[in-house]
Design goal:
45% of the residues lie in helices and 16% in strands. By secondary structure, it is of the alpha/beta class. The strands form two sheets. The protein has a six-stranded parallel beta sheet with strand order 2-1-3-4-5-11, sandwiched between helices. Its EC number is 5.1.1.1.
């Protein structure tokens, strides 16, 4: 026997409310709390399913937010989880696309999400520029950049204090007596990688510590293998560094594997500050010192800003919000007596 789907009229009969009130609620409008409870009870009891396509045509809203990220990894997954938790509470769902660090795919996936008629877009850009967006976007929707700004495009942006926290990490090593400090950093076409290297350089400059260019290693942000190779290169130098600052999660994991393979004693032979790898830090003895990014806070701030813009509130636009990362010092650093 075929089950006939419940309709708004059925909900009206069940609740005793008007069709107008029920329709207002289903289309995202505010209704009295007692009416909301009645409607939700009826929806559950009658197994009512909202026709999202029809609702989207009526309201010009799909109740979806598109998210574009370079890769699926712990850092971005935590942000998305935090973002989604808040958006789901207000009836929005999240459509996530990754572009696998591919410039062509990045633009294609951005175009795909826009054509899905999402109500807002959250973007972690690599090669995406303002000119690319202007070619695609023909309607006014909120676009929020997280982790990295979009060059030549005016939009809300949420980043971490990459320069300041990297400066602080390297400063800690310098004040502990280290003068031969290595860094494993990401590709310099990425904003965060450039800012973290800039912090490293500025700390050396301000403390009048000469930089050995051979101690600066460039890695692939999203590859443990690349982090492994760069750490091996530092460890195998004729005059290896006494300390290394690793500026990303995957590179930290790869570096730890390299140090284990070389049986490096931390901190007796090498002082180490890693990035975001709290689980790995607990597995290493002694525990690693780390830069910890506020991933949940990034997701929460992005969700709240999206909801604000979707309500038509454009106060403080374009917002540039910089969140503070934390430097967690453990026993992976030793002091060097001058």
């Amino acid at each position: 026997m075929i089950k006939i789907p419940a309709t708004i009229k059925d909900i009206a009969r069940y609740t005793g409310l008007s069709i107008a009130t029920i329709s207002k609620y289903l289309n995202g409008g505010n209704v009295l709390e007692k009416n909301r409870i009645l409607i939700e009870e009826a929806i559950k009891a009658l197994d009512f399913e909202v026709n999202e396509i029809a609702r989207g045509l009526r309201t010009n809203k799909t109740m979806t937010v598109g998210v574009l990220i370079p890769v699926f990894e712990q850092f971005f997954s935590t942000i998305i989880s935090s973002l989604e938790t808040i958006l789901l509470e207000t009836g929005y769902s999240v459509v996530v696309c990754d572009y696998k660090d591919d410039e062509k795919l990045e633009k294609e996936r951005f175009d795909f999400l826009y054509k899905k008629r999402v109500d807002a877009l959250v973007v972690v850009p690599t090669s995406l520029r303002g000119c690319d967006i202007r070619k695609i976007v023909k309607r006014d929707i909120p676009i929020i950049a997280i982790d990295r700004p979009i060059p030549d495009y005016e939009c809300d942006t949420i980043v971490v204090n990459n320069f300041e926290i990297s400066y602080k990490a390297v400063e800690k090593l310098i004040t502990m007596g280290h003068r031969k400090i290595g860094i494993i950093c990401g590709p310099q076409n990425i904003y965060t990688a450039k800012e973290r290297l800039r912090g490293y350089i500025e700390a050396h400059k301000n403390y009048n510590v000469e930089i050995d260019e051979g101690y600066i290693k460039f890695s692939d942000y999203h590859s443990m293998e690349s982090g492994f190779k760069r750490m091996m290169e530092l460890l195998e130098k004729d005059d290896p560094p006494t300390a290394v600052f690793i500026t990303n999660y995957d590179m930290t994991v790869g570096s730890v594997i390299a140090m284990n393979e070389k049986d490096v004693k931390i901190p007796d032979e090498l002082s180490v500050i890693g990035f975001d790898s709290i689980e790995i830090a607990r597995m290493v003895k002694p525990p690693l010192s780390l830069v910890l990014q506020p991933t949940e806070e990034i997701g929460k701030a992005a969700a709240e800003l999206i909801l604000k813009r979707l309500k038509g509130d454009k106060s403080d636009f374009p917002l540039f919000k910089k969140l503070d990362a934390q430097l967690l010092i453990k026993k992976s650093i030793r002091e060097i007596k001058c």
